[in-house]
Amino acid sequence: MEIILAIIVGLLYASGIYLMLRRSLVKLVIGLVLLGNGVNLLIFLLGGLVKGKPPIIPPTDTVLGQIYADPVPQALILTAIVISFGLQSFAIVLIKRTYIVLDTDDLDQIHSAEEDEDDY
């Protein structure tokens, strides 16, 4: 199972970086989303996959005798999901405003529009 998740993480990283290198702002945001999901899966994978064992240890146990799921990576992933949702919503609003003002989402045209404004 870990091998399949490692391959999926690699695919998410590769596709995220590929989309981030495109010239469109929309593809840039989609690449950021894919890269963020790849990071979340990587953190989850590094925490260890334990089937059927919750991250809660009973109060009657004084010594850890069994394998249990580590709750720290799960908490980090939940925090990362909230932060990435805020980043994605801000980026979507920023892209919409840029498209309304400049009528394009091509990064080269946006850069040339900034150079044209500097000439005046």
UniProtKB/TrEMBL annotation:
Q: Which UniProt keywords apply?
A: Cell membrane, Membrane, Transmembrane, Transmembrane helix
Quote the subcellular location field of this record.
Cell membrane
Q: Which InterPro entries match?
A: CPA3_antiporter_subunitC, NUOK/Mnh_C1-like
Domain of life of the native organism: Bacteria
Principal location listed in the UniProt entry: membrane
Q: Does the keyword Isomerase feature in the UniProt annotation?
A: no
* GO cellular component labels: plasma membrane
Q: Which family does it belong to?
A: Belongs to the CPA3 antiporters (TC 2.A.63) subunit C family.
Q: What protein name applies here?
A: Cation:proton antiporter
According to its UniProt entry, this protein's organism is Adhaeribacter aerolatus
